[in-house]
Design brief:
The chain contains six helices and nine strands, in the order ααββββαββαβββαα. It is α+β, with helices and mostly antiparallel strands. The protein has one domain: wza like fold, CATH 3.30.1950.10. Strands 1, 2, 5, 6, 7, 8 and 9 form a seven-stranded mixed β-sheet that branches. A two-stranded antiparallel ribbon has the order 3-4.
Length: 215
Amino acid sequence: MTRYARFAAALGVCACAAAAPTDAAGQGAPPADSARAHASSPLRPGDAVRLRVWREPDLSGEFVVDEGGVVNLPKVGPVRAVDEPIDVVKARILSAYEKFLRDPSVEVTPLRRIRVAGAVRTPGLYTTDPTMTVADVLALAGGASPQGKANEVRLVRDGTTVKATLSQDTQLMQSPLRSGDQLYVPERGWISRNPGVVVGAVSAVATLIWALDRH
């Protein structure tokens, strides 16, 4: 094998290795455990409660948890909504409406705020519901930028990356995401973002070696 062939082959292997995707998500808790963690995690100020009362449109809507941890609901008034599992909050709301409605059919859905950061078009804090997928949440932020690795989304909590298995199709209710968590989209490596530059550099170096060999 000539020096040109050996050098070109080596550069090709390096470029492919640098461009290859890695598994940044790691191994997380089993889906059932993740679902329980999400369902039981308490709301925080700034989150909201979606209320749907059958045949009572005036009582239905989305209501924000205030800075004091209270959500004000029609007819019922203030209800404590933080520092407790969401199931406890749901039971409290249903019990409160039983005093005003006969055999009420009330659907209570927690709406948690999730921060989307990294290589996305519009980073920010977004309100999500449990049925949304990771892809849905990224869409709220305009989707991944051309530099983003949309298939390697990381879960960050209090500045620390949490090991979790997250795919684009993962529903929030099946994940360990909590209010205030961050979905972080990492950037692709420089080589994978600039394949044309890499190919051009390899070609130029190979041509130079070929010219030197002729001399």
